[in-house]
Specification:
Blueprint lengths: L7 H10 L4 E3 L4 E7 L3 H18 L4 E5 L2 E6 L14 H13 L1
Antiparallel strand pairs: 1-2, 2-4, 3-4
The structure holds the ligand C[C@H](O)[C@H](O)[C@H]1CNC2=NC(N)=NC(=O)C2=N1.
Length: 101
């Protein structure tokens, strides 16, 4: 299943509109680092993101230690041979995640 990649201009717009996210993996992904009061808050947030991921059929790569959560969004289906690229799905997920916070 192939998904169109965002072009350079669209990536620039994505980063401008979502200033808590930064470019990662040489432009193939975006990343946001979050810190919560404790593990329970972090896990509660992750549970809500998990429900969003199922709704969007778009799943984050993430890392959690205690109260820290790092989320990386990329679209494997947009460039499967190279581990992924940014697509509109990443922009939509970033938007939805930001709306939780
Ligand atoms: C088959 C299934 O729809 C695909 O693997 C979906 C599911 N979730 C996904 N999540 C992410 N992050 N990238 C994808 O390309 C992707 N593709």
């Amino acid at each position: 299943m192939s998904v169109p990649k965002l072009n350079e201009k669209e990536v620039a717009t994505l980063l401008a509109d979502h200033s808590d996210w930064s470019s990662a993996r040489d432009g193939a992904a975006i990343q946001r680092k979050l810190q919560f009061a404790d593990f329970s808050e972090a896990w509660g947030f992750m549970a809500r993101v998990a429900l969003l991921a199922e709704k969007h059929d778009h799943h984050p790569e993430w890392f959690n230690v205690y109260n820290r959560v790092e989320i990386t969004l990329t679209t494997h289906d947009a460039d499967p041979d190279n581990g992924g690229a940014l697509s509109q799905r990443d922009a939509d997920m970033a938007e939805a995640i930001d709306a939780l916070l």
